[in-house]
Specification:
A hairpin with a 2-residue loop joins β1 and β2. The chain is an alpha+beta fold.
């Protein structure tokens, strides 16, 4: 049940933000919006406000913003205004409206990452400051306390968190002397840190602390985190396409499982998951593939460069083929997700 509710919340946020980006860009460029829908299929709930039909559809996957000039018959209550039709807008305006959806998802990912960095923080792997102690390990028995800064181990200077593990594995003795700084004072503690365990390593039993940033720093660092994550996502996608890395993709069922797991781990884990999903959705929608926003942007970019519009009927056919392939891929990935759960 948790997975279902978490999935609906994740999909709801992603879709509303995405379609909201299209909607706001259309309003900005004075394009008439007839309908804003969450979900696909038959309409379950709807109301009309200021000429826009706001509705929830039966299947909570996807959504749409129906603009004046889109294909299909007008609905009862629509008041068409051909002067505000989407196709009548200049190429760059249509480009902005189409790009507004994925752009909004990326911006939301940045905002959520900023909130995470300011409100919860991230694990500090630079500073050798103890954040938590693990029960049953030597550090707790030696009297180490959260907030202690490790200065040296058996005389070797420690400058960052990774040095602790590296030094413990290299010293070649179980008898270990630590110099730590606590409340501005330097003290020495010593004890036995045996080599062994499941990890075949010398484990002291400490975990790094967490650092939170000021709102200003969080905004800047949030952008940096999203940028690096975007590079990693696109690099991984390219490696899957070229065969350099095994393809590992998931569909709605897999996302539902992940969303449930994230929700069970707490609020901040769920916020982190929501940021990652929105970033992935925004980037993938910008890929130059038929049926995706990126595919439509390719045609618009060509029109902006050449000054000539690609024949609409041929563009529609390209997107229909792309949509069929996309639906087939989703069905296949969903089958694999279900197979993993059964196993």
């Amino acid at each position: 049940m948790v997975s279902v509710l978490a999935f609906l919340l994740v999909i709801g946020v992603c879709v509303v933000i995405h379609e909201g980006g299209h909607y706001l860009a259309a309003v900005w460029r004075n394009v008439q919006v007839h309908e804003f829908a969450f979900g696909m299929g038959p309409r379950l709930l709807s109301m009309r406000r200021n000429g826009v039909l706001w509705c929830i559809r039966a299947f909570p996957v996807g959504g749409l913003v129906r603009l004046e000039g889109d294909e299909g018959e007008p609905l009862p209550g629509d008041v068409p205004d051909p002067e505000r039709a989407f196709p009548r807008r200049r190429a760059w305006e249509r480009f902005v409206i189409i790009a507004g959806g994925p752009f909004s998802n990326i911006v939301l990912a940045w905002i959520l990452t900023t909130v995470l960095l300011a409100g919860y923080g991230v694990i500090d792997l630079k500073s050798p400051v103890v954040g938590r102690l693990m029960d049953g390990y030597p550090a707790a028995e030696m009297g180490v306390q959260p907030g202690d800064r490790v200065i040296s181990i058996n005389g070797r200077v420690i400058t960052e968190w990774g040095d602790i593990r590296t030094t413990l594995q290299d010293i070649g003795t179980d008898e270990v002397k630590f110099e730590i700084e606590r409340d501005g004072r330097r003290i020495e503690i010593s004890g036995v840190v045996p080599f062994g365990g499941d990890q075949k390593a010398r484990l002291w039993g400490v975990q790094p602390g967490r650092v939170r940033y000021s709102p200003g720093d969080a905004v800047i660092r949030g952008f940096g985190y999203c940028w690096q994550m975007s590079v990693d996502i696109l690099r991984g996608l390219w490696q899957m396409i070229t065969g350099a890395m095994k393809a590992d993709i998931t569909g709605p069922v897999g996302i539902a499982v992940w969303a449930g797991d994230a929700a069970k781990q707490g609020f901040w884990t769920f916020i982190s998951f929501l940021a990652v999903i929105n970033l992935n959705l925004g980037l993938l929608n910008l890929l130059p593939l038929p049926a995706l926003d990126g595919g439509r942007l390719v045609f618009l970019f060509g029109e902006m460069i050449s000054g000539r519009k690609f024949p609409e009927k041929w563009e529609n056919r390209v997107h229909i083929v792309g949509l069929a392939m996309l639906l087939a891929l989703i069905a296949f990935v969903t089958f694999l997700d279900i197979a993993r759960l059964v196993d």
